[in-house]
Specification:
The complex is a heterodimer of chains A (156) and B (420). By secondary structure, chain A is of the alpha+beta class. Chain A has three helices and six strands; from the N terminus they run H-H-E-E-H-E-E-E-E. The longest helix of chain A has 16 residues. Chain B contains eleven helices and 20 strands. In chain B, a hairpin with a 2-residue loop joins strand 14 and strand 15. In chain B, helix 7 packs across helix 8. The chains are: A alpha+beta (156), B alpha+beta (420).
């Protein structure tokens, strides 16, 4: 696995999320995948003993996607426009395959200030049937508090 | 002008929207509400050891919430007696002393001024004892919840809390040792709306069906039993709203949404079932059947006037919010659990918390969206000045959680304090 291959994969994922192709995005995840956003004041913690902002197992991720596709998910209806810039991609471990990357996610809603979610991703990737898949992704925000970011109502 | 119209005979209760928009009213609130009431500072369990501290904004003031060398809880105004700089600029930590970096004045953990660089240049009579860190006139705690009051003549915390204590006790009784603990990990986020909208939203069950249909669908699809509402109810279980006096109020609902102490729902997973049964058995052994059922089979969202919410629902959350301006607040939320809780039970509690609460939950983001939508609509407050709040008013006796008695209780106290 080369860094370019990993980068290409992360860019494809970002494109799906920015396009709100959430079912296609789900297809990138393994059957035991997790998605986490730690609390801003405890960025290096375990969700079993620390309150997170998001700590989804795969069932919860699927429920989250079902919710986001419902027009009654009022925080994201109409859906925000997002644009993800992903840089500084590094393979930090090969067995298992762990990848870190920086992100800047810009989020726009009608009549609202632009919100900039900046931080780093921590991915656990795995090959299944010859294809790269996401076994875990953690989005760690640099902001000391969510403060003006408000909520994390879309998939970060 | 009165901003709340309360005419029980005419079944009329209306709130003037200027109360949620006007900067002059926001300024007056700081004096008449936040300078007079007991305001929540933090929970004793957030400070584990002597010297531990947290800094936070409470009632518009920067505070140091800490323990001194003898492990006693202290609250200081976080402003140097020399020029006013923040004495402590870290969010949290442990300190032997607090040193203001500007000119180097240093304070001990009881707030006493310990050292002044170049002290000999001050005229004779300069006395360090007169320059201790200032403490609020009153600080007191009820069962671990620490409050302050900036009014030296205020009634005692005990008297102030009054009937709300019964509902705080129901939270505390979930712990075998009687000690609840704030779990690490803080949710801190702004809402671009007036803080009183969050008071209403925190225990207004009328909005549940329309605002949180995706959350209700999630519960249903996860196998949670949801009975069809009967007898004029809007929700799957019976629930009431109660006025507790002094502006405090609560909902008191038969639980259908699961509780970490101790009512299992499929979302918790089969593996957690024996653990929850164990918790239930301990509860019954300690409190008896009736009290155990009271603690475990009802959920309650309590407002301690003006800005503390204890939401004892899908999990226990402490939520407080500071008005930043008429149209903006800063919310801080923590998870609370029994100190001796097992790792399994703790994980269930935190997972259950996130199904509903918080900026990444399945419900709170939609509440935030609702409040911000209200605030945007309120820009037309001169043309559309009044909001009705009369649900349940024509009814004798019990008021439902989807009625508005408990909202009115808050607003009546708000109006009383603002008018004098």
């Amino acid at each position: 696995m080369t860094r370019q291959e990993v980068e290409a994969f992360l860019y494809e994922e970002a494109a799906l999320l920015d396009a709100w192709k959430l079912d296609e995005w789900l297809a990138l995840l393994t059957a035991d995948a997790y998605y986490r956003v730690p609390s801003n004041d405890r960025p290096e913690s375990d969700p079993g003993g620390t309150l997170f902002t998001i700590a989804d197992d795969i069932a919860r991720i699927r429920s989250r996607v079902a919710r986001l596709k419902d027009r009654n998910a009022h925080a994201e209806f109409p859906p925000s426009r997002t644009r993800r810039l992903i840089t500084n991609v590094r393979i930090v471990e090969r067995q298992p395959l762990r990848v870190e990357a920086n992100f800047a996610v810009y989020r726009y809603r009608s009549n609202d200030d632009a919100r900039q979610y900046v931080g780093r991703y921590r991915y656990l990737l795995r090959k299944e049937d010859g294809r790269l898949k996401i076994a875990g992704r953690e989005a760690i925000l640099d902001a000391m508090e969510l403060a003006s970011l408000g909520a994390v109502s879309f998939i970060l | 002008m009165r901003l709340v119209v309360n005419e029980p005979q005419a079944f009329r209760f209306e709130v003037n929207r200027a109360a949620l928009v006007d900067p002059a009213i926001h300024d007056l609130e700081q004096r008449r509400i936040f300078d007079r009431c007991w305001i929540y500072v933090g929970h004793e369990s957030e400070l584990a050891a002597p010297g531990d501290f947290k800094t936070r904004l409470v009632a518009g003031r920067p505070l140091i919430f800490c323990r001194n060398g003898e492990n006693q809880v202290r609250v200081f105004l976080n402003t140097c007696r020399h020029r006013g700089s923040l004495v402590c600029r870290s969010r949290e930590g442990n300190a032997e002393r607090y040193t203001c970096f500007y000119h180097g004045w240093t304070y001990d953990r009881d707030g006493g001024l310990y050292a002044v660089p170049g002290q000999s240049a001050y005229p004779p009579g300069f006395d360090k004892k007169q320059f201790s860190l200032k403490q609020p006139p009153k600080v007191d705690a009820y069962r671990g919840f620490v409050f302050l009051n900036f009014d030296a003549d205020a009634v005692s915390l005990d008297e102030y809390l009054g009937n709300a204590k019964e509902y705080i006790d129901l939270v505390i009784d979930q712990s075998p040792s009687g000690e609840m603990q704030v779990i690490q990990g803080t949710q801190e986020y702004d809402i671009r709306a007036n803080w009183k909208l969050l008071v209403e939203n925190s225990f207004d069950d009328y909005h549940l069906l329309s605002t949180h249909s995706t959350w209700l669908d999630y519960l249903k699809n996860s196998g949670v039993e949801m009975k069809r509402p009967e007898n004029g109810h809007m929700l799957p279980a019976h629930g009431v709203g109660k006025d507790l006096g002094n502006g405090h109020a609560t909902t008191d609902n038969v639980n259908f949404r699961g509780r970490p102490v101790a009512r299992w729902i499929p979302i918790y997973g089969e593996a957690a079932k024996p653990e929850l049964e164990k918790i239930r058995a301990e509860l019954v052994a300690r409190l008896g059947e009736a009290r155990a059922a009271r603690v475990a089979d009802t959920n309650r969202n309590l407002i301690v006037f003006p800005n503390l919410v204890l939401a004892d629902g899908s999990s226990v959350t402490i939520r407080t919010f500071q008005p930043l301006s008429a149209d903006r607040m800063r919310v801080t939320a923590w998870a609370l659990g029994p100190k001796e809780e097992s790792a399994t039970a703790r994980a269930v509690r935190l997972d259950s918390f996130l199904t509903f609460y918080g900026p990444g939950g399945f419900a709170t983001p939609d509440d935030i969206a609702a409040l911000e939508s209200v605030q945007q609509g309120l820009a037309a407050y001169r043309e559309v000045p009044w909001s009705p709040m009369s649900r349940g008013m024509a009814k004798e006796g019990e008021q439902l959680n989807t009625d508005e008695l408990h909202l009115r209780a808050f607003w009546i106290q708000w109006d009383n304090l603002m008018s004098r």
